[in-house]
């Protein structure tokens, strides 16, 4: 404001001087000179002593923008304010999505969107509480900076509301839609006949694959339940295998991350049209399940003629040329039929970046060992090592060395050899990312074994943190069951409270937000109130009101998450917003 007044004074002073100069010029023009004018320009007085006294104090020279410069104490004060603001900006938490998170955003076209799993949200919750000590990191899909500056993390779970409900009735969620920046499609346990409480509460602590980790895939595909469940430790192994080959299989979320085609509700209708399963029904996989290496440039010894005209054979990469395709009549459907006849019901497919091959085949399969995942020499999961390099480093073999393109038989054989080598060594052989997992397990001896999953809430409260869960009676009881599972004594840092109604859950939840680092509220909207011919709009507006209450009670520098639990026939949606004061 002071600078504005100074500028106004300067403008007024300029106008007065201009008027005085104009009057003097008229007077000089009316007087005829007695002598010849001097060739030098006359010095025009810009004002008298009185005018100088009337001039307002100047702040300084004018800068390129036309605004006056500042010096001295004012400049020092401005620099101090800028330093404080910069320091404050750098100290507050920051949250942003990475590429995989962006792919799940509702901003992405529904045909290109790749949903996330509930485990992704679980990893974010754990990282927000214990940072680098978390067994899992959310770095694959998001970045949370200055997690230790978070005041608290608040999660509201609303069961029975799906992505469809939100997108179809978004006008009934005005606060939620306008306030939360990140809206992500998520595959919730309801889609694969599991339980939100269980999947959110329990954390598998290593990458070792036990039977429990196949629950997701078991419900995507038609997999027969084994008549008698055999513990992993009691399973007999093939002569040269040091551990079950099932431990190298990709989990459900890994298959989504690697862009494998999966029979997920919604994606089948829009993204995987024309895709088929390798079998109508599958058997449970075992350490003796046969492995089949596949490379899609050539399936066994058959080439496939595409339906469309070939414009480029890409011989350098495919190894296919015009001569090879001249008399080929076999179509994609014929190859699909051949594979369906060839593969047994518990077959394990092996390959390098096998998702690309399955997309080319337009086929889906539940049991996958991908050499680009189980081998990693970069130390970074996002950076894949070429098969040529893996063969050279681990097999001492040269492949893809000729100028006639890749040989599919050679590539497939190399993949099979790499998997067999890994089975003869140990579970972390050739994996720079997981190479230190033994040291990590020794550092956290109470974190369990490969066949044990610990409580997510217990992990979050290991470093002087507290957590609170508020839910309906049956829901709160399940949370408490998983918190106390396998433990001799209850955890004093974890509070589980039961309420009789959704309204009471939200009220109790809002009252306790400031007292705990991690807060979870779990409500359930009756399915009857969500029927399209009923008054579903009222139910949605009530949910939006709950979300507003939670958000307004949340302090600055806090992460707020809302999870719609989805339904059997529809995915859920997760909303995320980092609340912070205006800087």
TrEMBL record:
SUPFAM superfamilies per UniProt: Ribonuclease H-like
GO cellular component: nucleus
Domain Exonuclease: 290-428
Gene Ontology terms, MF aspect: exonuclease activity; nucleic acid binding
Pfam families: RNase_T (PF00929)
Highest rank taxon of the organism: Eukaryota
Species annotation: Aromia moschata
Record-given protein name: Exonuclease domain-containing protein
Region listing for Disordered, in residue ranges: 15-66
Keywords annotated in UniProt: Exonuclease, Hydrolase, Nuclease
Compositional bias annotation for Basic and acidic residues: 15-46
């Amino acid at each position: 404001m002071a600078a504005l007044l100074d500028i106004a004074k300067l403008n007024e002073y300029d106008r007065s001087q201009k008027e005085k100069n104009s009057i003097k010029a008229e007077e000089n023009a009316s007087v005829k000179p007695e002598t010849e004018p001097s060739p030098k320009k006359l010095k025009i007085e810009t004002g008298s002593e009185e005018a100088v006294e009337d001039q307002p104090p100047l702040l300084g020279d004018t800068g390129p923008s036309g605004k006056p410069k500042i010096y001295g104490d004012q400049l020092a004060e401005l620099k101090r304010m800028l330093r404080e603001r910069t320091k404050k900006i750098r100290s507050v938490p920051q949250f942003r999505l990475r590429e995989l998170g962006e792919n799940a955003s509702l901003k992405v076209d529904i045909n290109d969107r790749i949903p996330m799993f509930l485990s992704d949200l679980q990893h974010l919750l754990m990282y927000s509480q214990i940072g680098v000590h978390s067994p899992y990191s959310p770095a694959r899909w998001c970045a949370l900076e200055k997690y230790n500056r978070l005041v608290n993390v608040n999660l509201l779970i609303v069961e029975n509301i799906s992505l469809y409900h939100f997108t179809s009735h978004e006008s009934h969620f005005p606060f939620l839609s306008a306030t939360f920046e990140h809206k992500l499609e998520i595959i919730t346990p309801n889609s694969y006949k599991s339980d939100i409480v269980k999947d959110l509460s329990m954390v598998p602590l290593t990458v070792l694959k036990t039977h429990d980790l196949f629950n997701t895939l078991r419900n995507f595909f038609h997999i027969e339940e084994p008549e008698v469940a055999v513990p992993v430790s009691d399973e007999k192994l093939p002569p040269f295998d040091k551990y079950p080959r099932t431990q190298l299989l990709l989990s459900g979320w890994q298959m989504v991350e690697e862009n494998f085609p999966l029979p997920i509700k919604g994606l089948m209708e829009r993204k995987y049209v024309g895709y088929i399963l390798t079998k109508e029904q599958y058997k449970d996989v075992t350490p003796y399940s046969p492995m089949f290496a596949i490379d899609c440039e050539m399936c066994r010894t058959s080439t496939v003629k595409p339906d469309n005209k070939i414009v480029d054979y890409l011989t350098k990469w495919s190894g296919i040329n015009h001569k090879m395709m001249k008399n080929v009549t076999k179509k994609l459907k014929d190859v699909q039929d051949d594979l369906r006849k060839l593969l047994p019901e518990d077959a394990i497919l092996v390959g390098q970046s096998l998702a690309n091959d399955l997309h080319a085949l337009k086929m889906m399969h539940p049991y996958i060992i991908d050499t680009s995942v189980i081998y990693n020499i970069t130390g970074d999961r996002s950076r894949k090592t070429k098969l040529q390099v893996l063969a050279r480093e681990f097999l001492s073999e040269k492949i893809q060395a000729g100028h006639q393109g890749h040989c599919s038989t050679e590539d497939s054989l190399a993949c099979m050899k790499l998997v067999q080598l890994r089975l003869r060594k140990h579970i972390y052989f050739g994996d720079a990312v997981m190479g230190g997992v033994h040291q990590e397990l020794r550092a956290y001896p109470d974190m369990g074994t490969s066949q044990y999953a610990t409580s997510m809430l217990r992990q979050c409260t290991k470093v002087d943190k507290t957590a609170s869960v508020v839910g309906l009676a049956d829901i709160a009881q399940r949370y408490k069951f998983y918190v106390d599972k396998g433990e001799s004594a209850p955890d004093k840092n974890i509070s589980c409270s039961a309420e009789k109604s959704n309204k009471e859950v939200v009220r109790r939840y809002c009252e306790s937000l400031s007292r705990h680092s991690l807060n979870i509220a779990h409500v359930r909207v009756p399915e009857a109130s969500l029927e399209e011919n009923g008054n579903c709009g009222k139910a949605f507006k009530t949910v939006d009101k709950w979300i507003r209450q939670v958000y307004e009670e949340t302090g600055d520098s806090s992460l707020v998450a809302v999870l719609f639990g989805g339904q059997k026939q529809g995915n859920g949606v997760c909303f995320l917003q980092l609340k912070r004061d205006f800087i």
